[in-house]
């Protein structure tokens, strides 16, 4: 959960994506900072969306994942070996690669 006034980098430089199980206005500090830092951010409102988001994140807890956020939706899945190798070699800044997703 988030109030919206959080800073993305306050959680550390290791944050490469954010999934919220709640709605978030695009004008909040968190949404603006995520966009500025090129960190994918997905916010879902409503009980069903929040439940699905939490379930998906828990499924991959402690694993390398690929997060793709578009206006059409969110895809969260296991990262490929190539994606993991690339993420370990290069500092992507705002990439969609992260480890140890947390709910």
* Fraction of residues in H or I helices: 25-40%
Count of DSSP E strands? 5
Main pleated-sheet profile:
3 strands, antiparallel
Portion in beta strands: 15-25%
**Oligomeric organization of the protein chains:** single chain
How far from one another are the termini?
9 Å
Low-confidence regions: 94-103
Radius of gyration: 13 Å
What is the string of helix and strand elements?
A: EHEHEEHE
Mean pLDDT: 78
- Principal-axis shape equals globular
Structural class: alpha+beta
Strand order of the largest sheet: 4-3-5
Number of helices, where a helix is a run of at least 4 consecutive DSSP H or I residues: 3
Question: What features would you describe in this structure?
Answer:
It is built from three helices and five strands, in the order βαβαββαβ. The protein has a three-stranded antiparallel beta sheet with strand order 4-3-5, with helices on one face. With 103 residues, it is α+β, with helices and mostly antiparallel strands. The longest helix is centred in the middle third of the chain and has 13 residues, at 47-59. The chain has helices spanning 29-36, 47-59, 81-89; strands at residues 18-20, 41-43, 64-70, 73-78, 97-99.
Layout of strands and helices, then pairs:
Elements: E1 18-20, H1 29-36, E2 41-43, H2 47-59, E3 64-70, E4 73-78, H3 81-89, E5 97-99
Parallel strand pairs: 1-2
Antiparallel strand pairs: 3-4, 3-5
Task: Provide a concise account of the structure shown.
The protein contains 3 helices and 5 strands, in the order E-H-E-H-E-E-H-E. The protein has helices at 29-36, 47-59, 81-89, and strands at 18-20, 41-43, 64-70, 73-78, 97-99. The strands form 2 sheets. Strands 4-3-5 form a 3-stranded antiparallel sheet, covered by helices on one side.
């Amino acid at each position: 959960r988030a109030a919206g006034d959080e800073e993305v980098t306050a959680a550390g430089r290791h944050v490469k994506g954010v999934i919220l199980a709640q709605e978030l206005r695009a004008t909040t500090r968190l949404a603006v900072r995520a966009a500025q830092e090129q960190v994918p951010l997905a916010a879902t409102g409503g009980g069903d969306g929040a439940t699905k988001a939490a379930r998906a994140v828990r499924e991959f807890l402690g694993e390398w994942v690929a997060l793709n956020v578009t206006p059409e939706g969110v895809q969260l899945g296991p990262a490929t070996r190539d994606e993991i190798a690339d993420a370990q070699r290069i500092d992507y800044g705002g990439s969609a690669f992260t480890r140890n997703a947390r709910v």
